[in-house]
Design a protein that fits this description.
This protein is 80% helix and 0% strand. By secondary structure, it is mostly helical. Helix 1 runs parallel beside helix 3 and helix 5 packs parallel to helix 8.
């Protein structure tokens, strides 16, 4: 298959998948089917915006050269607004969330001071890892899965497809980081479901 065709298929597929994820995630939030953490998605929005800006400034890249990062910005901002409007009280900031936000601000200030796009982009991937901490903490403490498996599986598939059209090392790092983080989150969600079913079985047999 011609390389240009593969690239076009990748760009279109990633765009459509992220559009589906955005619409479905916002709908599930509106219907109170899921309880996403507002803090995590605020982190996502800030970090994804910084990541895209530093990527574009690091070389002569276009928005399509890192289509995952580009469409992720639309997704993160849309979901953040949806959670703010329709999320319940568990989606608000906790003390843990505020501590994570401090780390985000520190790296953002580093970029403003140094204007080092490559280093800042790399550090930003750390922000995107930190962004998972609120939902990971909640899953670990409450042992209640408030996330959608379908959504997060789609989120894992999307960066894998984006690797077919990404240009530059920074774009590859962005996609690989996303895949690893989401797979870890999915494993934690499976753990929560397993513990919940095990507890239900014990209660039912008592």
């Amino acid at each position: 298959m011609p390389e240009n065709l593969v690239r076009e298929i990748s760009i279109v597929s990633v765009s459509l998948l992220n559009l589906f994820i955005t619409v479905w995630y916002c709908w599930l939030t509106y219907k109170q089917k899921i309880k996403p953490a507002l803090a995590m998605w605020i982190f996502f929005t800030i970090a994804v915006a910084i990541s895209l800006a530093t990527y574009l400034k690091s070389d002569n890249f276009s928005l399509l050269d890192n289509i995952l990062n580009t469409t992720d910005l639309v997704l993160a901002l849309s979901v953040t607004i949806a959670i703010y409007l329709w999320g319940d009280h568990t989606s608000r900031f906790s003390r843990f969330d505020k501590g994570c936000l401090v780390a985000v601000v520190v790296i953002l200030l580093f970029w403003f001071v140094t204007r080092n796009h490559v280093v800042t982009h790399t550090l930003t991937q750390g922000i995107l890892v930190i962004a998972y901490f609120p939902v990971v903490s909640r899953l670990w403490k409450t042992r209640e899965n408030s996330e959608s498996f379908l959504i997060w599986i789609a989120m894992a598939v999307t960066p894998a497809i984006s690797l077919l059209s990404s240009k530059g090392t920074l774009a590859t790092i962005y996609s690989v980081r996303a895949i690893v983080c989401i797979l870890v989150l999915l494993m934690l969600m499976l753990r929560v479901e397993y513990l919940s079913r095990k507890h239900s079985d014990l209660v039912g047999s008592a």
